[in-house]
Structure formats: C-alpha cells, structure tokens
Amino acid sequence: MTFATADPRWRCDCGGLLDLDTTSSFDINALRRRQPTMWRYREMIPVCEDENIISFDEGYTPLVPLKCSERSILVKQDHLFPSGSYKDRGASVLISKMKELGITRVVEDSSGNAGAAIAAYCAKAGIVCDIYVPESCSAEKLKQITAYGARLVQIPGSRADTAAAALAAAEEAYYASHTWNPFFFHGTKTFAYEVCEQLGWTAPDTLIVPVGNGTMLLGAYIGFTELHGAGLIDRLPRLIGVQANECAPLSAAFAAGTDDVPGIEPGKTRAEGIAIAAPIRGRQILAAVRSSGGMIVSVSENEILAAATAMGRQGHFIEPTAAATIAGARDLICELPAGETIVTVFTGHGLK
Ligand SMILES: *Cc1c(COP(=O)(O)O)cnc(C)c1O
Predict the structure, then answer these.
(1) In what order do the strands lie in the sheet with 151-155?
(2) Which residue of 270, 274, 345 sits with most ligand 1 atoms within 8 Å of its CB, as the best mutation to test the pocket?
(3) What's the pLDDT at 24?
(4) CA 335 to CA 322: how far, in whole Å?
(5) Angle, nearest 10°, between helix axes 215-229 and 190-198?
(6) C-alpha angle 226/227/228, rounded to 5°?
(7) Which single residue of 19, 31, 247, 281 could bond 275 by disulfide (Cβ 3.0 to 4.6 Å)?
(8) 264/310 Cα distance (integer angstroms)
(9) pLDDT 10s digits, 120-169
(10) So what's the pLDDT on residue 309?
(11) What is the pLDDT of residue 166?
C-alpha cells in the first residue's frame, strides 16, 4: 500500500514495515556554497520546509585513514556527533519530520544511543518525549537521556516487553522508532552521501559497518542506491555487516542462505548497540547485503576488546559496539583485494 508522507504514520495498516519512495535527482553543483553538515544534501532529505529542520549543524564528519592489520583503511568519525553516536543522523531527520507533521508527543524504546539521540532532538524541537526502557537498565546508562529532559518509562521484564509497551503507547503518541520509522533511515543515509563526496564522488569498494537493526547498514544502502540512481557513482560498494558472536542472528541467516532471519536466544556481549536478537528489518538487511555482493560476519568478545585497545593506542576512544566493527575489519582485511578503497566507521564515542 502507498501513503502520503504528510500522513502521520509509522507502519502500514497491515502491520508491516514502511519505506519511503524517493525519486528526485541530485545536482552536486548546488553543494558548493553550503555548510559542511549532513543537511547540505537538502534536496534528498524528505522534510518539506526549512523552518521545520531540527539541527545542531551535525554531520560531515571527518573520514580519516587508519592503520588496520598493516593496511590503510578510511574511518568515518561518526562518534563525533552531538549526542555521541551516528544515531543523530536519523534523529535529526525524524524529529524534523515530526515537527513538520505537527506532532507534539513521541514515544521511543531504547536505553542506548537511539534513545539519547531522539531525546536530544526532541529537546531542541520542544516535543514531549517518553523513552521506554527495561527496568533492569542502570541509572548510570540513562543519565544522558534524562539530562535532555525526556521522561523515562521503566518496564519490568525483557527488552521485548519494553518494545511491546512502547508499541502499545504508540496508539496514543507518535512512535519515533529508529527501527520502524522510515524517516530515520533517510537521515542515516546521509552517511553514504558524505563518504562519496569525501572520496570525490566515487563509491568505496568495500564498506564495513556494524549491524543489529540495520539503521546504519540500510541507511548506507539507501544512500548509495540513490547516488547510483542519480548517476553519481557507477556501482554500489560491497556491504559487510559485523555482529557479535554472542548475538548474531543475521550472520547465522546469511551463512544458512535463508531469506528470513529467525530470532535467536542471545548470549551476553559488550557490543550492546548491536545485540538485537530478532531484527524486524532482517529480511531487508540480508537482501541489501547479498545484492551488493557483501556478507555478514561475527566477532568474538576477545576480538572486540583487542580492537578497542588497538584503537585507543592510535588515539581513538570508541565504545565497544564501534570496536566490534573494527574487529570485523581486522579479521577480513587480508581477504580483500589489495588496492581496494575500504571504508568503515566509528559509530559511538567511548565516553558513553
Ligand atoms: C545503534 C548502533 C549500532 C548499530 O545499529 P543498528 O541499527 O542496530 O544496526 C552500532 N553502533 C552503535 C554505537 C550504535 O549506537
């Protein structure tokens, strides 16, 4: 089914996922006089009026070379966003759209970076924000969310119980979900635009990103697909998603060759940001990775620790989830053809 974007909805009447249809072409000559923020790709962002934009002038993060297993790779510094993770890309676009739709109250469920990002942008927009979190979540971890003035709703039971409570609350308030809401992905897609612009409007050969719910991976896929459609790049990069061994439903499904992603019983991993046992966009993630000729891999807790240490020794303080990605890159790099342009990302700051 098709709906107008002025229709304040976050899923289909059938209960299924929604995606945005964007068809506009894109002229890079317009960029010359624009500020170095993610909003420089203004025409490609589905917010109609400039006055609705909620922004901290975020984005256009540096793309810096890094030594990884004796090779040079490029790392996008997305831990340098205002709330400390790349989730600000999605939150800036999603909350701008909420403002445009006249929404005054939202709910979201995330005790991590998505919750912090949504809370920060709601604070700037003057939108009331309820963040649903598991009761078991430590107060320390929730400090950033409450600092932004969001209301915490603590739910007993599992992470799935929290998601169910947020879904029920979304009957009354708008669901600013980073997993369900397609506008979030049209924020995270700016990652691909920035990478291509920083590489002189070429695509990297390989992109290595963390994957749990796929907000980075699917956002990048949308961005590269749009750039390809606009004739600005001649191919998509090979997309490689990295999971933690302890919670790796996507890499298991990839290895098994299935189209769907059966949920799993997760173990405990320090890469909390990608510990998603049943990703609702799992099918889309597998299809995107396969169509790019890529793969989904997983890494051990020791490899994550080792990657975090190695990054620290090069002056980069990143959170464990971000280190998991680097661990994946360290594993894979010797299998990638020499001379390739390999891009990866620091998704979250170590101060978190
Ligand atoms: C959210 C997040 C990820 C992964 O995002 P998914 O949408 O679950 O794929 C990776 N790293 C950090 C730091 C995050 O906050």
Answers:
(1) 151-155, 128-134, 105-109, 174-175
(2) 274
(3) 64
(4) 21
(5) 60
(6) 90
(7) 247
(8) 31
(9) 999 999 999 999 998 887 777 799 999 999 999 999 988 788 989 999 99
(10) 97
(11) 93
Q: In the chain, which ranges are E strands?
A: 63-68, 71-76, 105-109, 128-134, 151-155, 174-175, 206-210, 238-244, 295-299, 342-345
- Supply the pLDDT for residue 27: 83
| φ, ψ dihedrals at 10, nearest 5° | -125, -5
Low-confidence ranges of the chain (pLDDT < 70): 23-24
Token pair 């409570």: residue = 165
Q: How far is the CA of 280 from the centre of ligand 1 (A)?
A: 14
Report the amino acid identity of residue 21: D
**Ligand 1 and 92: CB distance under 6 A:** no
Three-class SS state of 272 = helix
What's the CA-to-centroid distance between 328 and ligand 1, angstroms? 15
The pTM (predicted TM-score) of the whole model is 0.96
C-alpha closest to that of 132 among 92, 104, 102, 173: 173
CA 241 – ligand 1 centroid, Å: 11
245 lines ligand 1 (CB under 6 A): no
Burial class (CB in 10 A: 0-12, 13-18, 19+), 114: buried
- What integer pLDDT is reported at residue 70 of this predicted model? 85
Alpha-carbon gap, residue 105 to 102, rounded angstroms: 9
Which of these, 82, 65, 83, 85, lies nearest to 73 by C-alpha position?
65
The answer, yes or no, to whether any atom of ligand 1 lies below 6 A from the CB of 182, is no
Cα 157 to Cα 78, 136, 307: the distances in Å are 32, 8, 33
Annotate 11-76 with DSSP letters as a single string. S-TTS------------GGGGTTS-SSGGGGGGGS----GGG----S-----EEEEEETTEEEEEE
Pairing of strands 128-134, 342-345: unpaired
Contacts of 33 (CB under 8 A, 6+ apart): none
